[in-house]
Amino acid sequence: MGAETLAVLERANIEVRKVPEFCPHWRKYFTWKIWCCCNAPCETYLWIDAGICVLQPFPEAFVMADALGYFIQPNTLSLDVGVCQPLREHFGLTPEQLRGMLGINAGIHGMNKSKARALLDEAMDLCMHQAYMADQKPKDLFDQDLLSVLLYKHFSPLVFADRELYDEDHKGPHAHQGQRVWHHRRAMQPEDLDYFARNVSQPGAPHIPQTPPPRKERSFLMKARIRVAKWRGRCPEKPRVPYHGVRD
Fold first, then answer.
1. Among 166, 162, 163, 196, which residue's Cα sits nearest to residue 181?
2. What single string gives the DSSP state of each residue in 143-163?
3. Which pLDDT score is estimated for 26?
4. For the chain, which terminus, N or C, has the lower number of CB atoms within 10 Å?
5. 3-state class of 1 per DSSP?
6. What's the whole-number average pLDDT of the chain?
7. The Cα angle at residue 68 between residues 66 and 74, in degrees rounded to 5
């Protein structure tokens, strides 16, 4: 977080706490996110990933978290796709068992810390071991896999909220009737960005952003040039590295 952002938050009297280096891999595999959830100074927290626009209030998330202990909705992957072998062995789970279990969307979830205290304590203990967090996967869902398995352990059978309403992967702010959130993924219209920037510290009137501009597709000629450049060794492939949720 830059100095300019910190200054804006300070002027708005918003406290910012620095995540301590609580384990050697604290910056990797979203391990820091587990710490934040466990140490949130509140009874019930609602985690919302950066870049997500809240389109309308959804107090039902807190009602659900306080009643059940958690507020979750599913993602599109069953847990046999991502859960690493050390974590499977720790819980004694087979790929067949995991295949019938839907992962949660950790980008928007909440928990009542009194009802979910055992889950959060166990999550904190397990994330301290890098083997339970790190693995080569189709998607980098390190924290999500851990929370998903623990939710099934402590609260099964799970009650999921409607994915179409709360999923942050919507293509735009009007993808589904009644949707609560939208992850703009840096594709917001400039005038909408300016509006939200002006109201970072002082709340403005409710504002629903416009549909984002379509992404420009590369032309056939540009794709051909890139293929030739790669063949000549002038455009090497970028190595795939896990995204840990921290941009240096």
1. 166
2. HHHHHHHHHHHHHPSP-PPPH
3. 93
4. C
5. coil
6. 86
7. 110
